[in-house]
Amino acid sequence: MADRTAPNCHLRLEWVYGYRGHQCRNNLYYTAAKEIVYFVAGVGVVYNTREHKQKFYLGHNDDIISLALHPERVLVATGQVGKEPYICVWDSYTVQTVSILKDVHTHGIACLAFDLEGQCLVSVGLDSKNTICVWDWRRGKVLAAAPGHTDRIFDISWDLYQPSKLVSCGVKHIKFWSLCGNALTPKRGIFGKTGDLQTILCLACAKDEVTYSGALNGDIYVWKGINLMRTVQGAHGSGIFSMNACEEGFATGGRDGCVRLWDLNFKPITVIDLRETDQGYKGLSVRSVCWRGDHILVGTQDSEIFEVVVHDRNKPFLIMQGHCEGELWALAVHPTKPLAMTGSDDRSVRIWSLIDHALIARCNMEEPIRCAAVSTDGIHLALGMKDGSFTVLRVRDMTEVVHIKDRKEAIHELKYSPDGAHLAVGSNDNSVDIYGVVQRYKKVGECIGSNSFITHMDWSTDSKHLQTNDGSGRRLFYRMPSGKEVTNREELKLVQWASWTCVLGPEVNGIWPKYSDINDINSVDANFNNQVLVTADDYGLVKLLRYPCVKKGAKFKKYLGHSAHITNARWSHDYQWVITIGGADHSVFQWKFVPERKSKEALHIAPQETLADSNSEESDSDQSDVPEMDSEIEQETQLTYRRQVYKEDLPQLKEQSKEKHRATAMKKRERAPGSGVKLHFIHGYRGYDCRSNLFYTQTGEIVYHVAAVGVVYNRQQNTQRFYMGHDDDILCLAIHPLKDFVATGQVGRDSSIHIWDTETLKPMSVLKGSHQLGVCALDFSADGKRLASVGLDDNHTIVLWDWRKGEKLSAMRGSKDKIFVVKINPYLPDKLITAGVKHMKFWHKAGGGLIGRKGNMGKTETMMCAVYGWSEEMVFSGTCTGDICIWRDMFLMKTVKAHDGPVFSVHALEKGFVTGGKDGIVALWDDTFERCLKTYAIKRAVLAPGSKGLLLEDNPSIRAISLGHGHILVGTKNGEILEVDKSGPITLLVQGHMEGEVWGLATHPHLPLCATVSDDKTLRIWDLSPSHCMLAVRKLRKGGRCCCFSPDGKALAVGLNDGSFLIVNADTLEDLVSFHHRKDIISDIRFSPGAGKYLAVASGDTFVDIYNVMSSKRVGVCKGCLNYITHLDWDKRGKLLQVNTGAKEQFFFEAPRGKRQTIPATEVEKIDWSTWTCVLGTSVEGIWPVISEVSEVTAACLSNDRKVLATGDDLGYVKLFRYPVKGKYAKFKRYVAHSTHVTNVRWTHDDSLLVTVGGGDTCLMIWAHEPESHRELKQCDSEESDIESEDDGGYDSDVTRENEINYTIKALSTNMRPMTGVKPHLQLKEPSVDERGSRPPVSRALPQPEKLQTNNVGKKKRPIEDLVLELVFGYRGNDCRNNVHYLNEGADIIYHTASVGIVLNLTTSCQSFYVEHSDDILCLTINQHPKFPNVVATGQAILVTCQPRLHLFTCGTL
Which long-range contacts (CB under 8 A, 24 or more apart) does 1252-1256 make? Predict the structure, then answer.
């Protein structure tokens, strides 16, 4: 079978021809090292003109469109287009990323500018609001953001002489911004009479608040403050695209092809007209200028870069050229020389020297060029045109040999035959024409088998056959030169092809993804010598694959650089280079081919970003050459933790059910019970899908998690304390280096991370808003200041936090596949690693992003755990095959076999490591993993006598290991926590059920015991007295869902999932009797009260069977239910059964025959029931929540004193109600600890404890019942009580009114002040009364400035004078509180009314005003701290157009 791995050779970008001049401005600068920095396609280029060398920055994944140079001229910021565009700040010397700024802009980043100090960066987005954003770029943090303008913004600049002032300009506007706090406030420039309102294309700031700007008509507008002071008319003939300020003055460049230099006062110095120089041409347009000393750089619209020396300004040097705007499709390589020929829609054909990296010839044609070919002797160059003609030129002097037009549609492919005798020309007319070269290109044949346009062609080596591909995905063969189609496949078997550029055919099947039928690969070229294939596609990827690659979805190496479509790719004649051309970016890339033997050295040659030679992510999807996944890991990878309903949805769902509330709010509702419960102990530990989640705390207690609870367990006293802050499953836990704080991450739509104190159990910080679905891995940095987290979203987002501040430092998509572990480097907190399914990545922080590199390990393994070693570059990771991989930096040094089966946990010690695996072995290693010092097998034989339970099996899979206090702490997949003494004995501390849902629960009739049965196929007996341990366990054939003690406590009945049930001895758990009468699951099982004469067995197939226990015979069957049975209860006499079904029906049957009875609701209440575990009926009507459509009450149990009813539902709530619960939506106390389902609840015989089991969270929780006399603990809140009923003591009428005020309605119900019409001083008449009546009520949004109107009224009018606010009557007291304060030791008071803040001097009665708000102020407070005297904060109501604002101001400076 062909090798399906990626080839070992690779490509290195060596040269890029071109410069992006179209649709971009100001994107060309000198760096401090006198190199030139610019961009083309998706690559940042640093070009050293003296040595004629280029370096590349490859951190972007789409077209770069903006660039700014840091004031120190070493760092560069570039912004790209795309759905989620980002900004990269990179070093022009090392071409490495320094910072990534992301998650703010959409569509693209149009402009960038650094401030004078270089601390802040401003960016402008391409979204509809042209958002302006100011960044602290080193930290990747947004300092301020504001909508920029409704129209496009072309340039933005910091005022270099006034800090925190910016200027932006664009379509018909210029704006002057001030940055204050985190608000950016604009003032529009006033054009006035000095100049026409027009589009401003570029600007530069000077001192004394002067701003120079270049306009579309070629004038320069000079601004003082926000007013237009003067204009420099006709500075350029047409639009001024670029303006650059330097020490000597200003340089401007325009569409007229001129560059002008101005002194510091904007007096002209000189003009350089590039159109008039030797290299100039008509239509040359300048897009970018940079003046530095006596050199000027000029970038043009047509992708050229000129360098002008001021003294010799008539002789500019042309230092870079590329194709002009228009798609670039044609590419051919010379058969014997290092030359490449390209032709484009700009109608030029160009010849490039691959050795000198230069353009050596160009020739303009009449038509756009779509394809090219060079004859085998290298003499003729054939060009296929868009109009259906083709032209042949002599390569030597570019003179025309022949021009032929036989077709109407574009010629898309042409090729000379290897013997040089024929030229095949393929057109979009679905045909290939064959021309004889010697007969002056006379047509000698025609191939007409295709029914779609021709895309690719190849000749056979003997020139007798031609193969074609067409647009419909067909591959055809023709005999040459006649053009007759070959249908006999036998004839083709021996054909050898001279070249392979077709995208179809068995040899290149592997270039297509496995399940794709798309035509997105534009070009292929095979290198027969090295057996590699290069492909070019629509996503801007150049890929290298092995040739031939027969099976779909072959592995490859991919290279980024081109932004979108790559239209063609070809090997040079000697296979030294690959040339690729970009359609839209019309650039030519030259890649150096590095064959296999050199690839080791090559790693040191190019210090490029990962993308330079990245093994593709996608190509990991093949299972074929990856070892089989371990079943446990397979299972874990598939868990999604998605919920039907998230707790976050509840308020919304309640809102939707508000109508229901209204009706019931009038009725008196049952109040909540007086007594409550408090979580006392949990049997369980989450090991089945979590790892490394078990630690010793500072004080020697043990911290771990189960369900939605963080548990701190004291092993001396066998007690537990709980952190109850989470409301859904906790999936991961990490401990602070000082071992006093713990971080836990949970499942949730917007899942949260809690950092809490293990002593006080109080949260220190809660982090939200960055992870969807859940958090699956956490790690603290060694200094404890940072926390890394990984989300469960599709991209497994990685976030780095400053957790105390709750601040997100960096974030980045981690991997498509699941990530199991994240670890922060203990020596360098800016570095981290992640490991997971077929994935090991090394990350470092760059501003607001993270840059990741894949570990180089040959074949990809799944990593289950990882840890840093004794130095910053050493990493040790455990694989799913039982190896430990030892890494230095990102290179795999060696692997050591450590376990049979996956290594789930590895822990670093001072001198060495400890590992645990699926094989149930704990191994201690020295610090280099050379020697295994000791192993401990987890076996029943070595269990110490003090154990709190029994080991279910020998060698359970080990999921977590931790060391401390002379012991090794071990967590297993089976939910056990064990403590291994260094000398060997093992103590079992905590255990719960294994994976699988737990449903069956029964409490003993007179002892503190309970029994549980679960889908994990075990039946267990638990001691509920303070010794809290598992007394007995028995494995069952099948999982079970229910169990019940007999009334004397000697027998225990267990219902199984296959329809059978057994009765066992309650002490020994040995079988007494078993039956198998049903096929479906046994859902409930009950002994009759008293002597326990009968046993009722309910099944999923709608029947209840009644057995006589003594005779072991079935004596009756209860029929008539329409749905599966969910709950059963006997009455006290043992004569009547109450049954609930899944369709919420309630039935009654008589024992022992099972005859159905109809009993009216009023009578049901009078019956004396032995137990009450049903959820239907009038006496429990109030237990169903308002949102009962999405939440089932799964279990209920009435206390033996018949006062309190406990329920469990499938949102994970345990609730207590006062019994009987009549009337809907009763009040309750509710407790969250289980995560999703509470499957069963039971009171113990004396009501002292409530026992609950939690379905999928596998745990058994014991709650202490606290009677009314106890002071209630604030762990319960009555949820549904937000239905305000009459008896709740409603609101005072004033409070009610204020509560209902809605500040947005006024603004939303009417339009803003009308934006059309005539300005007041231009109006001719007073509006009439009816007109007045129809105007909308006043709204406070400032009117948008009008488009400029010139006053055509002849006679002069008196200008409108300014109004000054002098006195305000009124104070807002009707709906605000605490809004009057003394200032200045009682001399002044401050208050507010309307949108004004007022300071009133009590002695002079003078008022001063703060008038920056644009709508009603609703609240006001003053800073009491002596350090900030007179600082006031006011908050305003919402404006329809913007966010509510908060203003801080100092009264002294109003």
Answer: 1252/1001, 1252/1206, 1252/1208, 1252/1214, 1253/998, 1253/999, 1253/1000, 1253/1001, 1253/1012, 1254/707, 1254/998, 1254/1212, 1255/997, 1255/998, 1255/999, 1255/1210, 1256/997
DSSP count for the chain of H helices, then E strands: 9, 110
Cα separation values, 768 from 650, 761, 803, 1360, Å: 18, 19, 11, 53
Which three-class secondary structure state does DSSP give residue 315?
coil
Closest CA to 1382 of 1451, 1446, 1443, 1325: 1451
> 3-state SS of the chain: helix, strand, coil percent to 5?
5, 45, 45
Rounded CA-CA distance 580/1229 in Å is 70
* Least confident residue range of 242-246, 613-617, 1132-1136, 1147-1151: 613-617
Asked whether 101 and 146 are in contact (CB, 8 A), the reply is no
Q: DSSP E strands: which ranges in 102-248?
A: 109-114, 120-125, 132-136, 141-146, 153-158, 165-170, 173-180, 183-188, 200-205, 210-215, 220-224, 227-232, 240-246
Strands 43-48 and 36-40, how do they pair? antiparallel
pLDDT computed for residue 558 by the predictor: 86
Please, what sign has the CA dihedral across residues 1, 520, 87, 817? negative
**Nearby residues of 601 by Cβ (< 8 Å), 6 or more positions away:** none
Residue 322: CB atoms within 10 A of its CB come to 25
Asked if residue 58 has pLDDT above 70, the reply is yes
Query: What's the alpha-carbon Rg for the chain, to the nearest Å?
Result: 40
pTM, two decimal places: 0.77
Helix (H) or strand (E) holding 44: strand 43-48
- Two tokens, residue 115: 């401030």
Maximum CA extent, the chain: 119
Long-range residue pairs from 714-719, CB within 8 A, at least 24 positions apart, any chain: 715/979, 715/989, 718/948, 718/1026, 718/1027, 718/1028, 719/681
Q: 320 with 39: CB under 8 angstroms?
A: no
Neighbouring C-beta atoms of residue 1163, cutoff 10 Å: 10
Q: Give the 3-state secondary structure of residue 714.
A: strand
Task: Enumerate long-range contacts of 129-135, CB under 8 Å, 24 or more apart.
Answer: 130/170, 131/104, 131/105, 132/156, 132/166, 132/168, 132/177, 132/184, 133/104, 133/105, 134/166, 134/179, 134/184, 135/87, 135/101
Mean pLDDT, rounded, for 674-686: 89
Report the distance separating Cα 428 and Cα 433, nearest Å: 12
What was the pLDDT predicted at 15? 92
Residues 457, 133: Cα–Cα separation, whole Å: 51
380-429 pLDDT tens trace? 999 999 888 999 998 888 888 899 888 888 888 999 999 988 999 998 88
By the 8 A CB rule, do 306 and 319 touch? yes
Condensed to tens digits (0 to 9), the pLDDT of residues 16-32 reads 998 988 888 888 999 99
Work out the percent of the chain whose per-residue pLDDT is above 70: 87
Distance between start and end Cα atoms, the chain = 82
CB-based contact 839:890 (threshold 8 Å): no
Return the closest-CA partner of residue 329 out of 108, 522, 561: 522
Distance of CA 231 to the CA centre of its chain: 49
What confidence score (pLDDT) does residue 516 get?
A: 63
CA distances from 321 to 318, 347, 717, 1032 (A): 7, 15, 80, 84
- C-alpha closest to that of 481 among 440, 424, 441: 424
Q: What is the pLDDT of residues 502-558, one digit of tens each?
A: 988 888 888 887 766 566 888 899 988 888 999 988 888 888 988 888 888 788 888
pLDDT bracket for residue 357 (50, 70, 90): very high
* Strand 141-146 relative to strand 132-136, pairing: antiparallel
What are the helix (H) ranges across 559-700?
599-605, 631-638, 650-656, 658-665
Main-chain dihedrals φ then ψ at residue 660, nearest 5 degrees: -55, -40
Percent of the chain topping pLDDT 90: 26
